[in-house]
Design goal:
Elements: H1 2-12, H2 43-56, H3 60-69, H4 75-84, H5 88-95, H6 106-114, H7 120-156, H8 158-174, H9 206-217, H10 231-234, H11 239-261, H12 273-308, H13 318-370, H14 381-394, H15 413-430, H16 445-448, H17 472-477
Helix pairs in contact: 2-4, 3-6, 4-7, 5-6, 7-11, 7-12, 9-13, 11-12, 14-15
Length: 481
Amino acid sequence: MKIFFKTLSSAFASKPAKKLGGGSDDNNKKPAKKAKALKVLDAKSAQNLAILLGSLRIQHAEMKRRILEVDDLSEEMISSLIKNLPEPEQITAVYQIKDQYADMTDAEQFCVTIGSIKRIVPRLQSVMFKMHFDEQVSDIKPDIVIGTKACEELLQSKKFGKLLELILLMGNYMNSGSRNAQSVGFDLSYLTKLRETKSADTKQTLMHFLAEAVSAKYPDVAGFAEELSQVDKAARVSEDNVIKNLHSMEKSIKELEKDLKAFKAPKEGTDKFKDVMSEFLGKAKSEHDTLKIMSEKMHKLFKQLGEYYSFDTSKKNFEDFFGDLKKFLEEYKAAVKENEQKKKLEEKAKKMQEAKEKAEKEKKAKKNRTQLVDLNGETDQEGVMDNLLEALKDGSAFTRPNDKRQKRTPRTQAGRKQLTRSRSRVGGAMLSPTLTSAVDIDIDDNNKNKGRGGRTNGVSNKSRTILPEDDKELMSMLSGF
């Protein structure tokens, strides 16, 4: 039984806790590695540089080679080095105690490795300038080209000058009798206020009136906006930024020249900085000189605009001036479109009114046709012809009704004779000399057998009216009479 409990105890008994603070086990532990103390660098500078080196994961000697040969350096890498490298004085101080290299921290060992490279930060900045040079040129050059073109367009545009004369004329007319009458000019900033000036009935603005006047009375001025094609882009050009970027470029070129003049080949390694950057320097200086000349030309043209349009270029800069012109052009084009839309609506309303009037006229003509005096009456035959003449004049007699022709009541012989006499009396006044002979009405043979005053069977097929022979439509219309 003792053996059983001993086996149980050895299998499931808990192990005793380790003692805090040492014990016999402490003798088996290896001593902790002692941290190296900083000799020159401050804690913050050393920490920043150590973090950078850990992220780059490049050996110190390899990093030095890349810097000397200007090879395989990325923009991010150069930017991080410029930002995190210690001050040049600290790097020099660490390099002077390079014999203690083994006892230095990783950050200070890196400073010893690159300490032999003179003016390392300006060198890195020059390499960064080379990387960004083409981008800087592409940012500056288009703005100068657009600004120059916009100034030339304004100085050469005759249509825009005539438009300004028209605006001045309108302003003098509206200000007649006031102290502003007979002005010889106006500030171009007034162009942006034309849309704010409304008519007495508030249905249109002075901008709409100007657009309509140009379209109707001065068509030769209508295309002035086409002569100012670069104004919209020029409104985004900042002459101050152009000048600032050129100054920054010039400063970087001078720094590079300074580094190349002070360059001395190191005793160790291969330094290709002078070879690589000398070729770039020639290109950069040539491009900068060209951009500077172009910028001076643009500035000169803008000064001429100030003199031509009488504004102070020191108070109204390039961006503000072309910004006002851009706004004016946009508002003018909008007014032209609104005027066109208004005309379309007016034409539509006019067509609707004409259609309404036409419908009313047709309705009235139809009513007149139904009210024609019955030609079968035995009396007042002159009134019949008057109504007939009226129907011929307003055209109602030329519209053939859809319904069937009403049958006529036979007339007496005396009634026919009376109708013939009435037609003879009015024939000379209503018919032209080209008409055929007088009315020839033959009475049906059956009527001859009836007594005087008896009823007849109507007009025979031989009846003819006095009409031009070629007016077949009219003859067809009146064939029933």
